[in-house]
Amino acid sequence: MTVRGAMDLPVVGMVGGGQLSRMTHQAAIALGLSLRVLADATHDSAALVANNVVVGSHTSEKDLLAFADGCEVVTFDHEHVPGELIRAMEAAGHTVLPSSAALRHAQDKLVMRERLHHLGAPIPPFAAITTKEDLEAFGDEHGWPLVLKAATGGYDGKGVWIVDSLDDAAPVLGSGVRLLAEHKVPLQRELAAVVARSPYGQAAAWPVVETVQSDGICVEVVAPAPGLSEERALEAQGLALRLAQELDVVGVLAVELFETADGLLVNELAMRPHNSGHWTIEGARTSQFEQHLRAVLDYPLGTTTLTAPVVVMANLLGGAGDPDLDKRLHLLFAKDPALKVHLYGKEVRPGRKIGHVTALGNDLAETRARANAGAHYLRTGEWPTP
Amino acid sequence: MTVRGAMDLPVVGMVGGGQLSRMTHQAAIALGLSLRVLADATHDSAALVANNVVVGSHTSEKDLLAFADGCEVVTFDHEHVPGELIRAMEAAGHTVLPSSAALRHAQDKLVMRERLHHLGAPIPPFAAITTKEDLEAFGDEHGWPLVLKAATGGYDGKGVWIVDSLDDAAPVLGSGVRLLAEHKVPLQRELAAVVARSPYGQAAAWPVVETVQSDGICVEVVAPAPGLSEERALEAQGLALRLAQELDVVGVLAVELFETADGLLVNELAMRPHNSGHWTIEGARTSQFEQHLRAVLDYPLGTTTLTAPVVVMANLLGGAGDPDLDKRLHLLFAKDPALKVHLYGKEVRPGRKIGHVTALGNDLAETRARANAGAHYLRTGEWPTP
Q1: pLDDT at A2
Q2: What CA–CA distance (Å, rounded) separates B335 from B386?
Q3: Which of A309, B65, B185, B349 has its CA 20 to 30 A from that of A218?
Q4: Interface pTM, i.e. ipTM
């Protein structure tokens, strides 16, 4: 059964109640829709603001099938739904986008690397690691330190270890986690190419951005990537568009890239709205959240033009103690009336992504300083020293 | 009792479940809030998308007091809550913004005109009309045809009659409605000055816009008003800011203006987000919906800068028959990928405001054409002949 809204518009279901669902719901409202959210709990970020919330587990086939039953299309706020359960929804006749076949490349780092290697896309040297001998051989060939990654389940720096030696790697090797080793690339910086693609095959790319990480967590995104040559920007966008097509992605695809002295290398893929695209809410004519909805509904995609020469997003991470966000917001708005603040309604815990701030401007250094000062102030209650 | 959200942020209640509440909820999400909506029914525009919906009547003191009980501040999506019920909420200790004392100037056209006359603000000649003799005297002095208006309850052209003679006015005069007569001003065009003001007294103005009406309903808003001299724009903004202060408005104040050969005249006031400000969602750095929330929460106000040289909003009115909006949206997005569409989730009825489209551009004629073509197509399923 397909339930349609008052305007006879489709119902889109998103599995997961995090901030990506929350911001997708915000975009859905403009399109006359109301996102249907499968949330773990009623206090999940998206469950606090959406009308059509189903509480259930994304690892329960029963819950997923019941959730999909009212939806024109089912899409995802995260990669953690087991592939066999996505295939069960598909087998039951539901439209799931991205499909299980596409999504496995964002769910399994080894599957992704093997596929990209096969496609001739630039990636760092890697190998599946099962034994100490596998790792020793990889280290002998590509040098130490190297990067060990869990093939599945990692995020925000979790599931990634930089190891200096076999001894250093022993606890991870013995943990039973499926692993891959990757050459520790001498990178200059990280970039992201975010695109969207519809079932019809139409695709659109936003300008390539620079992403800045701290302890494996993205803390800042600068659009467009400063000083990136047009040639390299086109190369990154072309690569992302090609991967979207080859992997048959529908929705937003974020391609995380390393920029090295020798060129670009693909780091990770995400097939959903992504932290590196939050700046598009105010910074582009079509946000990644609206675009994701347009894509999964097979509407033609929207213009991705920038709305300002420089757009900078800084993540707001939870700080220590009771933040009194209401008071800090008050003072921040007084200090910078042009800053755009997004709070996710999440309980504040140290290091947790609880919101982001976006600054738009003409000057790179000034715009970066404004965005980072805003996030720093909301986190700590103190203005950064200039 | 004041209920606060997961981030310990305030709960804002909005009385009325129309599209203004719907779009205010959209803005609330970014601020970490979830609007609490008092709706007539679960299928109201805002009730379809908000999480915290209370179904009740805005003319029931019991319902209003129960609704206000969970809110840090109560505000409005329309002017139809009787003054004595707003005062009852205030008497019970609730923060209501705008206050009953301010809001009566947007609820009662006669009270508004008497106050503005007293303040020396420019308004068309008017008089309270109780008898045929009152009307005859006004007609003798200011000429026929003249405008008769219901002092309360009118909207979108309802409650406004242009009458040629006493005979013509007889049905209205005999209807028992409280009336005022107003000189039929030889206007050149209509403008709107939209501002916001906080309890602290801070105020901010958006650029003055031109509004185009058809059959008493706003069909198009052009920002900034084409060809308006800077002097007159400042006069209009200054007037709106002065009225916001004099009437102690908190939240958004829209001042509808007539531009005549002799200058500006105030037509009507609205103390809430207003149709003449919908363009601000994409067209200004701070939308009227975010600004209204910031104002009633006494946060410092946001920047009102334009995001494009020309911004045009065209209202989408319901057309005849079954529109198949999903299909039309598909084709519209293919035709103009830069158009921003807002659908309100309302049942389609002829002439009803069911959404709006916004175009941003550099060229006035082209941007107007795009916005109007989009609204026309969604309404009729046909492209306008160029």
Answers
A1: 40
A2: 15
A3: A309
A4: 0.95
